[in-house]
Amino acid sequence: MTSNDLLAKSKKHLWLPFTQMSxxxxxxxxxxxxxxxxxxxxxxxxxxxxxxSLWLNVHGHRKKEIDEAIxxxxxxxxxxxxxxxxxxxxxxxxxxxxxxxxxxxxxVFYSDSGAEAVEIAVKMAYQYWQNRxxxxxxxxxxxxxxxxxxxxxxxxxxxxELYHKVYTSxxxxxxxxxxxxxxxxxxxxxxxxxxxxKQLRELFEAKHEEIAGITVEALIQGAGGMNxxxxxxxxxxxxxxxxxxxxxxxxxxxxxxxxxxxxxAVEHENVQPDIMTVAKGITxxxxxxxxxxxxxxxxxxxxxxxxxxxxxxxxxSYTGNQLGCAAALANLEIFEKENIIQQVEEKAxxxxxxxxxxAELEFVGAVRQLGLMCGIELVQHKRTNEPxxxxxxxxxxxxxxxxxxxxxxxxxxxxxxxxxPLAATNDQLKQMVDIMKEGIMEAATECLEQxx
Length: 452
Ligand code: PLP
Prior knowledge:
The protein is of the alpha/beta class. The chain has helices spanning 3-13, 21-26, 52-55, 64-74, 88-100, 114-131, 152-156, 161-164, 189-207, 233-244, 296-300, 322-337, 340-359, 394-405, 426-451; strands spanning 31-35, 38-41, 46-49, 105-111, 139-143, 175-177, 211-217, 220-221, 227-228, 247-251, 275-278, 290-295, 364-370, 373-378, 407-408, 411-412, 415-418. Helices cover 40% and strands 17% of the residues. Bound molecules: pyridoxal-5'-phosphate. Pyridoxal-5'-phosphate binds next to helix 6.
């Protein structure tokens, strides 16, 4: 099939996720292959993968060890169901995940995407209290601007107006508390932390008898715009959850597997979630595996005779898929073999230096970074922090400019995401930042010119 045929057919038959298809029609892109941190389209153009193919890719594309692990597994079997029957790679991966996860985690429940992992966490937390006879503990607390996926349950514990508002009457009510970000200039990080925890304490004091759990992204909100929590906040939430018997559900879908410079972001504050969700980087960005990890007391609340009616009636056709688990095992072995976590710590420092040049740009209001997870917020004027009119889509246009310059990424509103594969070298990170600077300057200047 020629490139023109592929383009025509993609426009005729495909419906892409999170995409206004009229945008795609104007600027289509079809990826043919990938190698290392590069992607190649059907026209032969190569691009740096500046968003790790949507925050997934870890060791680069076509990583030999993962390719081989999948091929080896394929000689045995691609898939058999996990409903009522285990399989070998799913057992081995569960053991590995428990070994890597915070100490209190002992159980692994598989699914296929980050949203499913969180949906499962919410259902588990709900049924946990029902099974234990606390029938009033039914509601969930969540942070403003939080994102946990696009299923009805995860949208209910999510709070991004642009994505969720239209579905309001379809969703269950969650208690939304403000994400702890500072609005007053003179407020220090520790003041902000203390005051935000005080508010949470008041809520828990008033409503703990009806609250089943709280869902939080670990340390940094991803899709909400790369917002960093003040230091100590997540630890404080953990302590309040313990005190008021509320389950702490930490979403590590975006932050897990080295992204923030630790295997899991909760390690930065030594937090032990009751339930923790992982996906994305778990297979190195190869195959759709996700997992909901739990402490033993969660598992025990579901354990008994069938007739006790405590079973967790949840599962998906591809849950625990062997090819995916084999890829995940190979991915995690490379973490050890290549000392990836230490590498990320070092690369994050290098990237921080590079991003200082981005922060100086007239059109950059803020640069937020945790490890190799970064957001660059664009504004019309640095001095006033005034945003561009949203209809101008300055960040989206910047990413199109970056594409023309040889890098792919996606915006989140006026925030540009930089989430390189963890394997990116310092040279490649520098190239990405240079392209970003140029793309931002071109698009922002164009937007301003159009205003006059
Ligand atoms: N949770 C967080 C924190 C995420 O960032 C995402 C996706 O970006 C999800 C959940 C949903 O994951 P998935 O797209 O695999 O459903």
